[in-house]
């Protein structure tokens, strides 16, 4: 549950509206003879006489369409003011952000590239992960891959991952609709304590080096961590887990309009995987229209079309992954200074020897792996 995504349990506030689902509080007529356009005192009023605050709701004057996300909080929580929702969101997400930052440092210290896989239920995340782990075993046999599996209930997906031979930890969220940074911190500690002598599930002040500003620590051996989020195309968009990137999976059976209907997720993702393209012959799905919609929300989003079951498009996905595994660190200022000194010394030496200046500049060093 979270107030951030508007799915908080507001029951405690006593605001639950007994049995009514239709939007009475807005005073919209709904097929009744009597027009009660702006009259809240109509006879079939809410049985408990609860006053609803719908000042944040935008109503289309022609069609009566309702936008409950038009207020400052961009979300409507029964019984809660917009100001309070904004404060709560800032508090909760602020707390999450702090732990996400510490996850990010922890991943960096361990050479881990972490990817947060987000989608609606059943888009093929676990199928794709199993296929990816198998394919990477051939393409990059030395690359360790591990998985954190998020679902409300069951360890089905972690069991599927473990069957491939890769280590996996299942995180069940119960009523929760997304993974958060503390859950990932705990799961990661358990995952990587397998390969370590030290167990730091409780203690994060473990002895191995975390990057210090100004210090160039030894780059750790690289590995890949997939975090499969709870199947939900809405809430996980807001939760930073400390990942390098969010990857949104959209299967072609879901319809091409999803990027515009659920824009937050597509805005937050670096890559959209268009999955189940093997089914395209059976569907009416306009790939170009889908990609155009995704780019309207996020002009920089990359797109790879694939099928987790036939393997079509997998090479492009593996390529994308392996690029992320190469350390992205830019050369340090000291290294660049040293390169400049060496270039100057070389030029002087060539001059002294009566040689022409080097025909091509000495390339700057690429970050070592
Ligand atoms: N035809 C086809 N089916 C696929 C493909 N990928 C996954 N599926 C099927 O889609 C269904 C859901 O796949 P999962 O991998 O469980 O999906 P998921 O996203 O992990 O689901 P949740 O974890 O429950 O959100 C299964 O029946 C898969 O066999 C694909 O590329 N093509
Ligand atoms: Mg799954
Ligand atoms: Zn550690
Ligand atoms: Zn939610």
Topology summary:
Elements: E1 58-59, E2 66-67, H1 82-109, E3 112-118, H2 125-139, E4 145-151, H3 156-163, E5 168-172, H4 181-193, E6 223-228, E7 245-251, H5 258-261, H6 263-268, E8 271-275, H7 287-297, E9 302-305, H8 314-325, H9 333-352
Parallel strand pairs: 3-6, 3-7, 4-5, 4-6, 7-8, 8-9
Antiparallel strand pairs: 1-2
Bound molecules: guanosine-5'-triphosphate, magnesium ion and zinc ion (ZN) (2 copies).
One zinc ion binds next to loops.
Kindly describe this structure.
The protein is 32% helix and 12% strand. The protein has a seven-stranded parallel β-sheet, sandwiched between helices. The chain is built from nine helices and nine strands. It is globular, with a radius of gyration of 26 Å. With 369 residues, the chain is of the alpha/beta class. The chain has helices at 82-109, 125-139, 156-163, 181-193, 258-261, 263-268, 287-297, 314-325, 333-352, and strands spanning 58-59, 66-67, 112-118, 145-151, 168-172, 223-228, 245-251, 271-275, 302-305. The protein starts with 57 loop residues before the first strand and ends in a 17-residue tail after the last helix. One zinc ion binds next to loops.
What is the number of beta strands? 9
Bound molecules: guanosine-5'-triphosphate, magnesium ion, zinc ion
Mean pLDDT: 83
Low-pLDDT stretches: 9-37, 194-204, 211-218
Order of helices and strands: EEHEHEHEHEEHHEHEHH
Strand content: 5-15%
Computed structural class: alpha/beta
Annotation field: number of helices: 9
Major sheet description: 7 strands, parallel
| Portion of residues within helices | 25-40%
Strand order in the largest sheet: 5-4-6-3-7-8-9
Straight-line N-to-C gap: 41 Å
The coarse overall form would be globular
